[in-house]
Design brief:
Layout: E1 2-6, H1 10-21, H2 23-30, E2 35-41, E3 44-47, H3 54-60, E4 74-75, H4 80-87, E5 91-94, H5 106-115, E6 119-122, H6 125-141, E7 146-147, H7 158-164, E8 171-177, H8 180-192, H9 196-205, H10 214-217, H11 220-234, E9 244-245, H12 253-261, E10 264-272, E11 276-284, E12 295-302, E13 306-313, H13 317-342, H14 345-349
Parallel strand pairs: 1-2, 1-5, 5-6, 6-7, 9-11
Antiparallel strand pairs: 2-3, 3-4, 8-10, 8-12, 10-11, 12-13
Helix pairs in contact: 1-3, 1-13, 5-6, 6-11, 8-9
């Protein structure tokens, strides 16, 4: 499988690292032989038609290295459209940063791959939050796969659980904690009685919050994930502009204490049921969604099995790279199935 990686930040580097270090397992267990022919970032690209040598790709994941350090493979100015054609790749792994205002540059990257007949694995929430129905339609039109397990839950397979493990069940609604940063802040306020500002500063110090935490504390990040979940799992046709969104900036320590006295905890909850919204809610302290720290949790309400809850890490480079790996394996299985379907019946019998 010939791959091009677009975006070489934490997730892009982690994905390349996982692909190189687990190549023997992927070959023997799944028949997946990944060959990275291009790695594209803002400063240029590493390119090799025959595949970037694994040792070079692994070395490039070192944060102390720059692309231009690998002179034999470095191309300073590249256009993705031309590169997709030139490298004749099967799959693009798109891991550029999320932009919830325009979806760019990821939105153009996805469209370019689709128009070139290239399957896609993306961890970028922006394009899906803004234009998911149109992108799914475009993928169908161009007969390409669009996989995005890593956009919700990081390495925790929330989307896969809903779509692959609940056959025979009707999901009536779901609700959950889809942002680890805000959960850390609210957990800290609850357990230590500190203010929002103090908890946010500690989250920054520990690397859980960005210098500009807007996407997290104003609930835009979980809102983007909610759009993806609602569209994919519940068959909605939403963009982030359709949601009711309220963050946690206004949560005071008095609110936390009042909830505690009532046997409850305040959590930032994304919900899809009678309402589709993200807002702080006081939930019972014995509720399965009352998880601490940066953990994410999601509860599905089903017609036959009742409530089913999945809990796990919602972010992290290696964790999200594991979702990229799942999606690549899924695409590989699709290729294998298509080959079997195309074989003459008598050969399949044999």
């Amino acid at each position: 499988m010939r791959l091009i990686v677009v975006g070489f930040g934490v997730v892009g580097r982690s994905s390349v690292k996982v692909l190189v270090e687990h190549q023997e397992m992927l070959r023997s267990r799944y028949g997946l032989i990944p060959k990275i022919v291009g790695i594209v970032d803002i400063d240029g690209a590493l390119v090799n038609q025959r595949g970037i040598p694994p040792e070079v790709a692994l070395s490039a994941t070192d944060r102390s290295k720059k692309m231009e350090d690998f002179k034999e493979y470095f191309v300073p100015d590249v256009r993705l459209n031309g590169l997709l054609e030139e490298l004749d790749c099967e799959v693009m792994i798109e891991t550029t940063p999320t932009n919830l205002e325009t979806g760019q540059p990821g939105l153009n990257h996805l469209r370019a791959a689709m128009k070139n007949g290239v399957d896609i694995v993306t961890t970028n929430k922006g394009p899906l939050a803004i234009a998911m129905p149109a992108l799914v339609e475009l993928a169908d039109h161009n007969k390409v796969s669009l996989r995005f397990s890593g956009t919700v839950g990081g390495g925790t397979p929330m989307l896969d659980l809903a779509k692959r493990c609940m056959d025979g069940l009707k999901i009536r609604s779901f609700m959950g904690i889809l942002n680890g940063t805000t959960n850390y802040i609210l957990s800290k306020m609850d357990s230590e009685g500190v203010s929002f500002e103090s908890a946010l500063e500690e989250a920054r110090t520990k690397g859980y919050a960005e210098a500009d935490p807007t996407y997290d504390v104003d609930a835009l990040d979980p809102a983007a994930k909610l759009v993806i979940m609602a569209n994919w799992v519940m068959g909605k046709s939403l963009s982030i502009k359709d949601l009711s969104i309220k963050g946690i900036r206004d949560i005071k320590i008095e609110d936390i204490k009042r909830a505690k006295m009532e046997g409850k905890a305040i959590k930032l909850i994304a919900s899809c049921g009678d309402k589709i919204e993200v807002a702080p809610l006081a939930i019972p302290r014995n509720h399965p969604l009352n998880v601490s720290g940066t953990i994410n949790a999601l509860t599905f309400d089903t017609d036959l099995a009742g409530e089913i809850t999945i809990v796990g890490k919602g972010a992290g480079g290696i964790e999200t790279a594991s979702a990229v790996l799942r999606d690549l394996i899924d695409i590989r299985k699709t290729y294998a199935h298509s080959s079997m379907v195309a074989m003459p019946r008598i050969l399949r019998r044999a």
